[in-house]
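Form 12-C: Joint structure prediction
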Amino acid sequence: SQTIHQWPATLVQPVGSPLSLECTVEGTSNPNLYWYRQAAGRGLQLLFYSVGIGQISSEVPQNLSASRPQDRQFILSSKKLLLSDSGFYLCAWSGEGKGRSNYGYTFGSGTRLTVV
Amino acid sequence: EDQVTQSPEALRLQEGESSSLNCSYTVSGLRGLFWYRQDPGKGPEFLFTLYSAGEEKEKERLKATLTKKESFLHITAPKPEDSATYLCAVQAWGSSNTGKLIFGQGTTLQVKP
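Section 2 - Result
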């Protein structure tokens, strides 16, 4: 069965510090991968998605970047964090467009980032 | 622009008091509509996928329905453990290769014993 791992679960970082959040998927190959951010009391905002290694699409201009160095690894980064980067970050995968019928996402457990 | 609006934002029910959550959507060709449950501090958990108007799906006390403009999540005789935020999302045919979903803001349900 497929599983998705996301870490760390909680992170407190000072303004101006770098960030690296990691997400890995097991039990499947060539997944679509996504990074979402969820601000308090708000819905999920798509930040980045990737349909393959090295292929990254950005949905909103921001202080963050994403990379996919391996098939099942997705990394969210920042060189210098801002206060506005605080939020709940979710990684997800889907098999959409890859010959699978499992539409929709499977989410990771999330990372609560607080920038102080 | 594709858009999803959920109502109400928050709903408080007594145990056993049935109700419905609404998800209105505007999308350029609906490929699928998804319902997720999210517990505090956790990632959303998949509940249902609906593909065409008139379709219904059930799971325990939950039943999801779909029309051409909206979806309802009916909760029958809820229990305190049904308390969570319920998220609705849509996928357009234009996103069939990327799997992108557009989410609503969610409805936070609290069921009191």
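Section 3 - Comments
Chain B has a mean pLDDT of 93. The CA atoms of residues 52 and 69 of chain B lie 11 Å apart.
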